[in-house]
Amino acid sequence: MIESYVELVRRRLEDRSANIIANLEKLGEDQLRFTMRIFGDCLDEEARGRLLSGYTEYWTEQELRAFAKGFVPAYTEYAIAELLEKKKEGERFVPPYLTEEEYQEMAVREKWPKIAEHPGDVSPLRLCREIARMGMLFRPYMLSDPGFNEGVLEFALYFDLLDRLAPVSLEHLRAAAREIAPLVAKAVSAKSIEECEKILPQIRTVAAGVAGLPADPETLLGPGMERYPREAPPGWKLRELRLTLETMSLKDLRLSALVHMDILTTEEVREIVSPFMTRFPSFYEIPGNPLRELILAVAGSVDDRLISYFFDRYSTGRMAMTKPVSFLVWKLMPEEEKLRLLREDNARMDSAMMARHLARFLHSSSPGELGDAGRQISFLTKEAFVSNHGSILKISGGGQEGEGVKRLYDQVTVAALRMMSSGAEERQKMFDAIRAMIAENTGIPLHTLGEEEN
After folding, report:
1. Cis status of the peptide bond prior to 229, with omega within 30 of 0
2. What is this structure's pTM?
3. Does residue 330 contact residue 336 with C-beta atoms inside 8 Å?
4. pLDDT value for 394
5. Which is the most buried residue in 3, 164, 166, 280, by most CB within 10 A?
6. What is the b/e burial string over 163-173, where b = at least 16 CB atoms within 10 angstroms of the residue's CB?
């Protein structure tokens, strides 16, 4: 007996749910978060509020897995109910009879003609989702690839676009859809890839325009599987750190303590760290529990810093010492305004911190290494790095005010901002020039650094 479409889909949904639950222990953090993103993108507002209540991407892997155990079956029940409701009068595959999963499974070239034919039957939330996707239509193959619908969910930009589209009136959403649909049809019927590539920016421009984004979204993509929202809930980082510290060995605790002390100014070290240091003969004689207390004291006092922010800030606006700038706002900001904010950030540093940052430039061989937190942490246990940042402070006229270091740091700030605003092919050349400038000003030859880092 041949099963109906509804029966086949229902069985597929149930089998998928059972398979995910059976393999939950094998899924890592990113895979778990992605699972919630895929299914969450098929929920209406009421169901999202109910099924994702209290959920955050900042949970630990264990917490995500525990949540998924209840969420996946609940979502499956919701998806089946929607399937039965949409197909109760027959197997129709046009709005308003399409399920959210069917929208998610259709290629752009297949679904947009249906949206164009039935604009009044597409829900506002679905319009927001499809317009947001059109803002991320970067390559011709994406018109025909059903995987594009899930692929966009890897990027925080998709959720940025959704948030911006949420308050837009239904009238304006439908007007944007009326502009996008013929452009999609034109791109689909293009005679060559080159011809199609000329149309895609027009589609993105319409989507970005209705979302109030005055730039091509392609320039704002960001890293994959970045947590969203980008800012953790209040107190979350400290909570996560406390759980992590409980699992650390004494050796790892020492390294973590060094990492946390590295993000402090000299005055902050005196205020936060010194009370712990005076209780023991040396840093390497502090036992595990006092080390945990030290790390938590630092994190609780300066909970908005990470070892890589001194460099990340140039491309993301995530400042090292001052309040962060929204990723999208930073990307759209003129260079002069970016430089003003970076200099305000610099003003919160002291010369010792700047010397450490300059040494990081010297000891890194590429911009990629500068942004690699693991690589930067590894420097803390290298004698050459410790020696060189001390030499930079001394040779560059550190003194009480550290004016020599501050002048050099300002030059590096300007050059690094321009480096990270340039094309990828130019960055290494500009990075090499920055390192040469630091070496010349500090008297530390670059050729002496290579072997020390291997």
Report:
1. yes
2. 0.84
3. no
4. 84
5. 164
6. ebbeebeeeeb
Map the chain to HEC letters. CCCCHHHHHHHHHHHHHHHHHHCHHHCCHHHHHHHHHHHHCCCCHHHHHHHCCCCCCCCCHHHHHHHHHHHHHHHHHHHHHHHHHHCCCCCCCCCCCCCHHHHHHCCHHHHHHHHHHCHHHCCHHHHHHHHHHHCCCCCHHHHCCCCHHHHHHHEHHHHHHHHHHCCCCHHHHHHHHHHHHHHHHHHHCCCCHHHHHHHHHHHHHHHHHHCCCCCCHHHHCCCECCCCCCCCCCCHHHHHHHHHHCCCCHHHHHHHHHHHHHCCCHHHHHHHHHHHHCCCCCHHHCCHHHHHHHHHHHHHHCCCCCCCHHHHHHHHCCCCCCCCCCHHHHHHCCHHHHHHHHHHHHHCCCHHHHHHHHHHHHHCCCHHHHCCHHHHHHHHHCHHHHHHHHHHHHHCCCCCCCHHHHHHHHHHHHHHHHHHHCCHHHHHHHHHHHHHHHHHHHCCCHHHCCHHHC
The per-residue pLDDT for range 360-406, each reduced to its tens digit, is 999 999 999 999 999 999 999 999 999 999 899 887 654 455 789 99
The whole-number pLDDT of residue 268 equals 97
